[in-house]
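Sequence only, no structure available. Ideas?
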Amino acid sequence: IAPKQPGQLCPTITMSAAALRGVQAVRTFFCVSAIAMCLAGTAAQVSAQAKDSRVHVRCLTTAGDFDIEVRPDWAPHGAERYLELVRSGFWTNISFFRMNRWIVQFGADKKDRPGPWAAFRDKRIPDDPHCKPNREGTDCICGVPPHEGILFDGAVSYAGGGKNTRTSQIFIVHNLADQPIGTDSEWEVPFGNVTRGLDIVRAIYPDYGERIDQTKIFQEGWKYLDEHYPLVDRIHRCDEFDPVEDAKAKAAHEAQLRRARAIRGAIPPWWAAVLAAGLLLLGALKPRRWTTIRRMLR
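Reply:
I predicted one. Tokens follow.
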């Protein structure tokens, strides 16, 4: 510390070059640490927001029920359209019409069917980036060439006839191992995955294969299907649901069943025999005796 000069309020502090470098290193360390903490917090917030953006949909079909987790972070345009279809009631009484060894497809109906069908039949959406979803997280590997597959068992995606042609035709992959080589299309980007009931998807009636004519469906609807393909499975409806509330409802139902079983188990088996004998005895009584018993009970 240099001595204070006349008129100077504070003494001048001087440092050696080594000490100055040490102070600068400490300052840099704290600045870098603060920036890293800020970036980590932002990344965590983005990850939480992406996780919160997931929407769960349950589809009730003639083959059983299955659940789809919709992922806007994978394919925003595709996810938004699918949720529009769900919320509009589009999936009410829609048939499956293509059931081959690796996918099931649905989303076609009579062109003049009343309701939301007409609003979406020709309403195309732009393609989403050809990205490979990370099913364990929120990141996607983008820039994947179209010939490199990005589908997986349980993937839910759109069928289309070329770039930017997606409307309402959906397919679910149930056995990717049997996918024919060279059938990947760049617009077939998964927007969700089946989280429960993939076995139900595999059990959808398969024997009609790809024989069902979409053009006939557009022209005649269920009249054509009922006449020529009476065993085809259909979707009754699809609805959004909250997995947390759904788990609570299932737990309450299971607890109720356990209580009912406990009550039944507490009743001695011989009570059933006594009750059966009493019913047989009453059944053997003649109508006049029934009348006498009723008068006595009065």
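The radius of gyration is 33 Å.
Hope that gets you unstuck.
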